[in-house]
Amino acid sequence: MSYYLGIDVGGTGTRWVVIDDAGHEVTRGRTDGATGLIYDAASLAAFVGAMEAVREGSPGPLAFVHLGITGAGFNRHANLDEQIKLAFRLPDGAFSYSNDMELAWHAAFPDGRGHLVSAGTGSIGLTFKDGERIAVGGRGILIDDGGSGTWIGLRALDRLYRLIDEKGAPEGAEILAEKLFGAMGGADWDATRAFVYGKDRGQIGTLAVAVAEAAHLGDPIALDMMTRAGTELARLALALVDRAGPAPLGFVGGVMKLHPAIQAGVAAALQGYDLQFPLIDAAHQAARIARAAAHR
């Protein structure tokens, strides 16, 4: 019996699925997040740790492994190749990988037609026109990941601190302040500085959960951030329509589940478009890709 491993590597979590020769699911699991941006020791350690956790949870022998990796870009990278070979003890030709967004697109549109916007730790839009890949957004936390978890968390902090600068206290945004400061472990600047400048993008993205909790409790700034996130994600979808023509617009990712105002913000900005909010299983799709690749 041979096994085929599919892995969806995200900033806040890594999910994997193993299927057998017949395509039946054998096992699945989840471990810590990681990224393909393994340019520093901490990011490399996170990637290696996640891959080792997946290997230990997977049965053997693995005939083929396919990964969708956030931050991996759309080209092969020698360092990623090496780390994957080492982690799963595979030879060249027994694994493949893509950007996690490309994996999500195949999971969302198995018939091959549609524009997809994904919002998790980061945000990005992807489609294909005449075989050409078109990607919009996804330029990372330092440039623009509009509507993403990191964008929501950091923009909410910006608005909160501007309010504190002007009023001397988070006047009118007490709920948001309580949630964000609680998530960062303290209400003083040192706690914020240590969290924002000392944590990785995946951990910063978790601040969006605190903002969403404040929105659910009626905080006006938090609610506004949810709506603005929806508008930002709609902007990516419109860019895809402008460049590739009309097609169903799909929205996926953990951000879409944070608060109903996000989906409402998308719908308000895209009235008249064919909108879809599919629940995709990217790790299982990766396992199917691995099985197909092994039988070519």
From TrEMBL:
SUPFAM superfamilies: Actin-like ATPase domain. It comes from the Bacteria. Residues 5-264 form the ATPase BadF/BadG/BcrA/BcrD type domain. InterPro entries: ATPase_BadF, ATPase_NBD, NAGK-like. Pfam families: BcrAD_BadFG. GO terms for molecular function: N-acetylglucosamine kinase activity. This is ATPase BadF/BadG/BcrA/BcrD type.
